[in-house]
């Protein structure tokens, strides 16, 4: 299938390498960002706390597969759902912090920019994904289970200024998960153009 210029750029190996490096270092930085919270998190919950870097880690695996002209379907489903969910979530939390306190440090604006990019990149690569309903079901179980860990066992990412709104944040996060799964279904399965990351498209 003939690609337009945007998807030719997305499929270019040079661009994929750049995106891989950016996401790899962003993932490492993200886990470092959570270091303080992880130190006080019970071991059983550790995997569920650093939501955003885990989302970008899923995408790192997707990009590795793309670089070898392959598809890692389960990682693709996990990536599109979690990149969109936690990308939007972080932007909303920082806007909410600004509204609640009247102030937002420069790191908040940096987080809004980086997490907006997270959400966008996950959607941009949807025409290249090859995941099926079964992969999306697994991604849904992971995502909704993570919400239970976050807001029933109270392991959610901490935004100090918003602690009094935790119930509202939990409610919002649940419906954001549902919206993310619906978007993944629409863009990843139901209505998309299917492109292949083949050598001739990666010159």
Report on this model:
- This protein has helices spanning 5-11, 13-33, 35-39, 51-67, 73-101, 106-124, 133-151, 166-190.
- The protein has one domain.
- The chain is built from 8 helices and no strands.
- 70% of the residues lie in helices and 0% in strands.
- The protein is an all-alpha fold.
- The chain is globular.
- This is DUF1405 domain-containing protein.
- Keywords: Membrane, Transmembrane, Transmembrane helix.
- It holds the Pfam family DUF1405.
**Largest sheet: number of strands, sense, barrel closure:** none
The helicity comes to 55-70%
Question: Given the helix and strand composition, which structural class is it?
Answer: mainly alpha
Q: What characteristic shape results from the CA principal axes?
A: globular
Q: What is the CA-based Rg, rounded?
A: 17 Å
The oligomeric state is single chain
Tell me how many strands there are: 0
- Kindly report the average pLDDT value: 92
Total number of domains: 1
Keyword list:
transmembrane, DUF1405 domain-containing protein, mainly alpha, single chain, membrane, disordered C terminus, 0% strand, 203 residues
SSE diagram, text form:
Layout (H helix, E strand, L loop, with lengths): L4 H7 L1 H21 L1 H5 L11 H17 L5 H29 L4 H19 L8 H19 L14 H25 L13
Care to give the gist of this entry?
This is DUF1405 domain-containing protein. The protein is mainly alpha-helical.
